[in-house]
Specification:
- The complex is a heterodimer of chains A (265) and B (398).
- With 265 residues, chain A is an alpha/beta fold.
- Helix content of chain A is 39%, strand content 17%.
- In chain A, strand 6, helix 9 and strand 7 form a beta-alpha-beta unit.
- With 398 residues, chain B is an alpha+beta fold.
- Among the domains of chain B are: 111 residues, Beta-Lactamase, CATH 3.30.450.20; 154 residues, Heat Shock Protein 90 (2-Layer Sandwich).
- In chain B, the strands form 3 sheets. Chain B has a 5-stranded antiparallel β-sheet with strand order 2-1-5-4-3, with helices on both faces.
- In chain B, helix 7 packs across helix 9.
- The longest helix of chain B has 86 residues.
- The chains are: A alpha/beta (265), B alpha+beta (398).
- At the A-B interface, helix 4 of A face helix 4 and strand 3 of B.
């Protein structure tokens, strides 16, 4: 069971420490996004990294569109991995949509988690009556079109070859440099599920201590959204970084590390 | 050779848009082509605009979640398709190549972007995609129609086979009917004529003894007429019995039984009877018919042996052209086929005025053979011998 989960989610583990720091990447990329952050915690924490099913080096064949038609599917995977690894008191660091995935997991199994660190979270991307998510449905359609037009060269027949073929090093090398190139069908499906989701009501159910890290300028999850999240999670703290863009853990890693360290240690 | 390229001139005239941005996204430099493409003045862009300002909201999501992280991780990214917005709001499709420039410590200094306007290429792409979609739809339709045609074809073939079978059946029935008509008229005419003559004679005659003699002649003719009618009726029954049951016949077994039945006649005649059923030792055939056929042919060969030599009679089976043949040959009296060939299998015919000959057998034998779908032919030379060749049935039906 553990072996199968490790393969399914490309689970990687390293580091030493009594506590576990579990990183979950957001929409668009994979665990590589954490590579500027993890080195600074591996001597004090046991680090666990995963690729959500359908991204990175996860088992693409495990992508069941019925299961992953809601974020609960990924939340269940996280719970199963924690159980299989016998983890407890987990500190989860989750970016973007994974902040909601982590929320769902923590609501289902609160005793599993000690602390939750959200980077650029958003419970809903599409504007509602009194709610500013930042986007209209038309915008999400445009995103899907952009996804389509940037995958014309992708041969989905190639993907398994690239993923599993160790005797073709030139392909492996190619993969190393082609980051965030996920299976276009899955990427499109995951985009729909992510950007059409509404997890506002789940925030109130969260009882874990939560830190919200927010870029001062983020077109995807704006300050307003960050404040909404903070207001709706009981035990939460909001930290606004002097950074721009939706991925401060990539564009301003030092500031992000500082914020995390201040919260955890 | 030194070509003395003026890099300043090159920078402003090389045929693609170019701009450069800081890590926070602000554009710090751009070439004239980029400004021309987007319809902005230099002052409106430098230190004022970011890459994402040229994108739609939906594309911004893609930029922040996929493009920027990928660029950060690999240092360079190529052939990414966006739609850039001009100052007046219209949009045009582009391909973007980008590269990050870092200092020696790995800190990012700035990012270079090259923008290719692909408006024409995009139109072509859309047309290709549309054609592809149409072609796929057409292909699917064709596959469906093709299957329908094939199914229809199969149906027609089946029906054709059925028609052919039925046609064959009708032909057979027709042949039987015309045979019957011929035989009936042929074989009933003579006895009825005889009866008419005898009746007239009887009427005219006054002598009691003559009348008694005539009447006994009438009795004989009536008996023969009766026999003929019975045989005809039996043969019709055989011909009409299309679905007669086929048994598993072993030639050796049935032949042995036949030898037993004719045991006395064979001993009496001192005939030497041999057989060889190795080539086709078994057959699915109506048991009664097979027994009747073997009995009739053996009995004929024994009966019509040549008086001056030892009768040698041989039964064997062969497979020729996927058909099972039964061949019966003897060295007996032979038949003058020129004279009697056409009458050989007729009803009530004999050719040798032999005391025991009845001639009924070959007519029935032929009827039985043909009822199972076979045929019988004969080769013969007077005073040399006779060979009957019977095609029993096709091998794959056996």
């Amino acid at each position: 069971m553990l072996e199968q989960l490790i393969k399914q989610n490309n689970v990687t583990m390293f580091g030493t420490g009594s506590q576990v720091m579990f990183f979950v990447h957001g929409y668009g990329c994979d665990q590589n996004m954490w590579r500027f952050i993890t080195p600074h915690f591996k001597n004090t924490f046991k680090i666990v990294l995963i690729d959500l099913v359908g991204t990175g080096k996860s088992d693409e064949s495990a992508y069941d569109s019925d299961k992953y038609n809601s974020l609960e599917g990924h939340a269940d995977d996280i719970i199963n991995i924690c159980d299989a690894l016998n983890l407890e008191d987990v500190c989860m660091v989750a970016h973007s949509v994974s902040a909601m995935i982590a929320t769902l997991a923590a609501v289902k199994r609160p005793t599993l988690f000690k602390k939750l660190i959200m980077i650029g979270p958003s419970p809903r991307y599409i504007n509602d009556a009194d709610y500013f998510g930042g986007f209209s449905e038309k915008d999400i359609e445009e995103l899907l079109e952009t996804l389509d037009s940037n995958y014309l060269g992708w041969s989905s027949a190639m993907a398994p070859v690239i993923m599993g073929n160790l005797d073709r090093p030139e392909l492996a090398a190619e993969l190393e440099t082609s980051f965030c190139q996920n299976n276009p069908e899955i990427a499109s499906h995951f985009a729909k599920v992510t950007f059409l989701a509404d997890n506002r009501s789940d925030l109130k159910k969260l009882a874990i201590d939560t830190l919200i890290i927010q870029s001062e300028e983020d077109a995807i999850a704006s300050l307003e959204v960050g404040q909404f999240v903070h207001k709706n999670i009981a035990n939460s703290k909001l930290v606004v970084l002097e950074s721009t863009g939706h991925c401060p853990h990539m564009s301003a890693p030092n500031k992000t590390i500082e914020a995390i360290k201040n919260y955890l240690l | 050779m030194d070509y003395n390229i003026d890099y300043k001139e090159f920078y402003d005239t090389f045929p693609s848009g170019y701009f450069c941005s800081l890590p926070n996204g602000i554009i710090i430099d751009s070439n004239k082509i980029f400004l021309k493409l987007t319809n902005y003045s230099r002052e409106e862009v430098i230190d004022k605009k970011k890459f994402t300002d040229f994108l739609s909201l939906g594309e911004k999501i893609y930029f922040e979640n996929v493009f920027a992280p990928a660029l950060k991780l690999s240092g360079t990214l190529e052939e990414v398709n966006f739609n850039f917005t001009k100052k007046e709001g219209t949009r045009f499709p582009v391909l973007v190549n980008s590269v990050e420039i870092k200092d020696l410590s790995g800190k990012q200094l700035y990012t270079h972007y090259i923008i290719f306007n692909i408006a024409q290429r995009k139109k072509y792409e859309q047309e290709l995609l549309k054609s592809k979609k149409n072609a796929n739809e057409l292909s699917n339709k064709l596959t469906v129609v093709n299957k329908e045609l094939r199914d229809h074809d199969e149906l027609i073939s089946k029906q054709k086979l059925q028609l052919e079978e039925f046609n064959q059946h009708l032909e057979n029935k027709n042949k039987q009917l015309s045979n019957f008509a011929h035989i009936a008229s042929h074989n009933l005419r003579a006895p009825v004529s005889n009866l008419t003559v005898l009746k007239d004679l009887y009427k005219e005659n006054t002598d009691i003894n003559d009348k008694a003699m005539l009447f006994s002649k009438v009795e004989i003719v009536i008996d023969r007429l009766n026999e003929t009618l019975n045989e005809l009726i039996d043969s019709i029954k055989i011909q009409g019995n299309k679905n007669i049951v086929h048994d598993n016949i072993n030639f050796d077994t049935v032949f042995t039984k036949t030898l037993e039945i004719l045991d006395i006649q064979i001993l009496d005649s001192k005939a030497v009877v041999t057989s060889n059923f190795c080539e086709a030792s078994n057959i699915a055939y109506p048991k009664l018919y097979m027994e009747s056929i073997l009995l009739n042919l053996l009995s004929n060969s024994v009966r019509y042996r040549a008086p001056d030599r030892i009768a040698q009679i041989h039964f064997h089976t062969e497979i020729i052209n996927n058909e099972i043949l039964l061949i019966v040959s003897d060295n007996g009296l032979g038949i003058d086929l020129k004279k009697y060939g056409h009458k050989l299998f007729g009803l009530n015919n004999t050719f040798h005025r032999h005391p025991d000959s009845k001639g009924v057998g070959l007519f029935m034998t032929k009827a039985q053979i043909e009822a199972v779908g076979g045929s019988i032919t004969v080769e013969s030379e007077v005073d040399k011998g006779t060979t009957f060749k019977i095609i029993l049935k096709k091998k794959n039906n056996g």
